[in-house]
Write a structure and sequence with these properties.
CATH class of the largest domain: Alpha Beta
Number of strands: 6
Shape: globular
Strand order of the largest sheet: 1-2-3
Number of helices: 3
Structural class: alpha+beta
Largest sheet: 3 strands, antiparallel
Distance between the termini: 33 Å
CATH topology of the largest domain: GMP Synthetase, Chain A, domain 3
CATH architecture of the largest domain: 2-Layer Sandwich
Helix content: 25-40%
Length: about 140
């Protein structure tokens, strides 16, 4: 049984200057993630940007939620691929923000394609991280 509330801890350790990369780490993981300011923001690149990690969190929440729903529904599949495109823009006050994300989901080899499509749609409504952000979300499903 899942017990709420839960706590997930992440830490970063960085030095001065936009040209220096740093590492971030989830407390539960041994491997740090290299992070950098992306070239789009006059940084050096060479690591995941906060924007990459944001898009990855939304994308992987979709994958994880779908996997749970499929397992509980006894639907198997060969592969689920999600390709996402995050749009960063300025809001009406000129502040930069994560305006929109489009997720293209391709599901291959589903044991029940009709039920799997229904679960993909349910996932798009049920993912806790996607539901926690004000970023506009659009989905494109392909079931084969």
């Amino acid at each position: 049984m899942i017990t709420y509330p839960m706590t997930f801890k992440v830490s970063s350790d960085a030095r001065s200057g936009i040209a220096s990369n740093w590492e971030t780490r989830a407390e539960a993981q041994d491997v740090p993630v290299p992070v950098s300011i992306p070239p789009e923001f006059a940084g050096p690149g060479g690591g995941y940007s906060p924007e990459d990690l944001y898009a990855a969190a939304l994308t992987n929440c979709f994958v994880a939620t779908f996997k749970v729903f499929a397992e509980k529904s006894k639907i198997t599949f060969d592969r689920v691929q999600v390709k996402s495109e995050l749009t960063v823009d300025r809001d009406e006050k000129g502040a930069p923000w994560m305006k929109a994300i489009h997720l293209h989901i391709s599901l291959q080899g589903a044991s029940d394609a009709e039920r799997a499509r229904h679960l993909l749609e349910k996932t798009s409504q049920s993912c806790m991280i996607l539901n926690s952000v004000k970023t506009a979300k659009t989905f494109d499903f392909s079931v084969g």
